Amino acid sequence: MDHEAEFTRAFLASAKRARFIQALAQPKHRGEALAQLDEDLPYMPGFATEVPSAQDFPAELEKLLRAKGAGPTCHVMALELKADGRELPLREALDQICLQGSGAILSCLPGQLAYYRPAAPGRGILFERHRP
Question: If we measure between CA atoms, which residue out of 10, 4, 28 comes closest to residue 129?
Answer without folding.
Answer: 10
